[in-house]
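Translate sequence into structure tokens.
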Amino acid sequence: MKSTEQLLKLDHELVWHPYSAMGADLPIFPVVSAQGVRLRLADGRELIDGMSSWWSAIHGYNHPDINAALNRQLQSLAHVMFGGLTHRPAVQLAARLVEITPPALQTVFFVDSGSVAVEVALKMAMQYWHGKNQPGKNKFLTIRHGYHGDTFGAMSVSDPVNGMHSLFAGALTEQFFAEAPQCGFDQPCTADDIAPLQRQLQQQHRHIAAVILEPVVQGAGGMRFYAPDYLRQVRSLCDQYQVLLILDEIATGFGRTGKLFACEHAGIEPDILCLGKALTGGYMTLAATLASREIAAAISAGEPGLFMHGPTFMANPLACSAALASLTLLLQSPWQQRIEKIARLLQSGLEPCRGLPQVKDVRVLGAIGVVELRQPVVMQSIQPRFVDAGVWVRPFGRLIYLMPPYIIDTADLQQLTGAVTEIVSKI
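Result follows.
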């Protein structure tokens, strides 16, 4: 068995990590186990997880119910192709998702990741308009500061400045962008907020298949919160100009903002909905794209008479079983009260950061807490400081944020916010 030092050396030589360079001098911390909200490192240290493994492990780690569901499924069927075959976990999960999402969404397409869920949504919108004999509606409109994933279609509708457009210029499809609203979550949406998107729809609706947005919370593009009223007005404009509405709830779905789905804050329904991340409770990679029956019917009636997508591991039985167990855990728990408590503790725990000169803003919505700095963090130095404080927090750019598991207790959350406050005060 190789030592930790040998494993880290091999990792350094062989393994690409997300958004990193091979051979980069960035700290890497080997994890050997996880339980509840704690990650145990190879050197014996335990870290309180403030990130829910990129917002997915909402029930924490090593949960006995999800473990049992996976063990049961493993005894009968680990995987089978989904072309021409089906299985109980996939059908049951589809039915559960249709039950809990907005009523207009009646069909489910399973994929392997959030980025691919967005790709599928874009393809669905384009094929819908092909089926309606309007193939010229093949572009997309979105707002700046968004993030929808790292594949090419998803990149094309992510922020053109903070995203990767310059690197892949000439390869990405050019889409339409409007200025993001400036109205905060608790503020009214003014005419000035909606005007940029409205102008784009007025001028370009004949070319636009759909508007795609992250509802209420723009995630990795800046952790920005905006008013639900903006979503209501966008829904109305999409109807007026005959444009579909795609909502990307990969980060916000399954309770993170205080509603089961963030679009519920606005009381609207999308035509297409993207889900992922917390779908399996962080156990396995699985995502889903839901659409209305109208969209499914138009695609099925048009050329070539079928939807042109089909991942190899689509609707993997293990992943579907994990998702069913995770959804049961969530819906049978007092998740609303837990989110409300987390929000209160994040608000009080991060508030001391607001008065620091290096801090631009502090904001909280549901189980999301954000400290926005005036200057970007230096990862080489700040990451080990969080680890030394006994917490796992992964900043990016100017943002230090927390998205803890829903099961976190008061003491652990206070340790998280205390570590953020202490470390930010010394930047």
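Note: Residues 114-131 form the longest helix (18 residues).
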